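User: Hey, quick favor. My workstation is busy. Could you predict this chain's structure for me?
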Amino acid sequence: MALAAMALAAMALAAMALAGPTTPVTLTRARPGEAVDHLMTHSGGDMEVHGADPEAPGWVIRDDSLTPSGKVFTGPTDRNACGPNADRTACPRWLDSQHLTQRRSYIPDNQVSTLQWRELEVLAAISLALAAFCGWWICRRVN
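Assistant: No problem, here it is.
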């Protein structure tokens, strides 16, 4: 009987954790070359472009640079403009010529703590269920 009560409490906690919405916000806008925070160039010539955005406070989930066709930009990189021996202003100019758009999804600051409480509730429910199972298993083995 106690095991059933514990399982019911765990399910109730899990349901409460999943009940309220924590909806990420998505911004899509032009990404100028000088707004790039950092670039990652891979050995095959692929490139990742990430930018700083003061208008997206909170927990960033996704940050993509999109081509004009809407696909995620992966390069290829122009080594003359963005290579190790290039001028510091050449790469931002080259990125501007690509007409990239930034798509950033984030959870706003005012919802991060709500998300953390939900995670705590889910983990507590899993812990209670595991503790109940262990108690049941031990009682079964002792008797």
